[in-house]
# Entry
Amino acid sequence: MSGLYLHIPFCKQACSYCDFYFVTRHKRKDEFVEQLINEIESHRNSRFTQEPVQTIYFGGGTPSLLSPAQVGRILETIADVFSLDLKEVTLEMNPDDVNAEYLRGLRSAGITRASMGVQSFDEELLKFMHRAHNSTEARSCMEALAETGFDSYTVDLIYGNPGQTSEMLQKDLDILSSYDPPHVSAYTLTIEPKTRLGKQLELGRLLPAEDEVVAAQFSQVEEALLRTGINRYEVSNFAKPGAEAVHNSAYWSHENYLGLGPGAHSFWWEEDGTSARRWSNKPDLSDYLNNKTEFKKYDEDLLDLRTLAEERIMLGLRTVAGIDFKTLLEKYSWKPNEKTETYLHNLQKNGKARVEDGGIRLTGEGLKISDAIILDLITLNE
Ligand code: SF4
# Structure
């Protein structure tokens, strides 16, 4: 089983925190769709088409800048080139692009899951994030989802913003809960160096939220969503039972996936299972469009089992299910040494982890400091 990721690199404007690859000029959008179709075609009869595709994910950028007809053509080409055993076809969308008619069009084109980039319902926070939508549009896209019966969807929320109080966050959570979403992705704001916020931070014009405030909001999000029957299943992801994202879960368990479009990443195991390759397409729209014959791999890495084991530990420990030592041993030849075992034992004693059923999973307290625990685990087992 494998997944496909399609990167749609167009955005209306640059959000202040964003360091993804995108362009704000849309002149070449139609040309891009043709080239994406060419890229899909270029994989016909390749080794990437040998496994049935389980998930398709339109990410970006802003995939909702595509029309339903364009999405439909892309999906038809995929169905023609790859063998499919689809469980989920997701498209990321922004509230200002969406109305009931558009959503109906996407459903007819084959999209089964919407990923709505709401981020907040607060007018001032949306302005701070430099989002293209306002608070009214954040609410109306939720109504459009309900109206069109899009029952599989997720909503993105960002918390830990400078100046965001627990009351402001609670208001966002209350509004969100009133729509009873099946899945929520809630991220702490991270300030990356090359973004608008990164520059403001560098110039001393921005004071990030304090760690204690962010930690309190981490728990506040979990508690509020739990009251509506949505459980945390990964550090940033929450779902009602059975509504967990299939595509993202496949990333965490190192399933093969192929990325298409400028800047898209791919991951594929070598046939003997002793290493895997990760590469990306060049994050450059002009280069992508001008390339008429072949789609070259860019930034390719061959990952050995040790690196892969560390990644798997890192990704697995961010999930509530945790990691299982049998998989680590059988698939990655990794087993805990004495120092690691003592460390795990202490984590358990301190209520940060549970070591049981041949695996380890972090408790709510452990998940709060998962990055530090993961780093310790990896360095101790060197
Ligand atoms: S819409 Fe998404 S990809 Fe585009 S700038 Fe904003 S956060 Fe980044």
Q: What stands out?
A: The pocket of iron/sulfur cluster is lined by residues 11, 14-15, 18, 20, 22, 60-62, 94, 117 (CB under 6 Å).
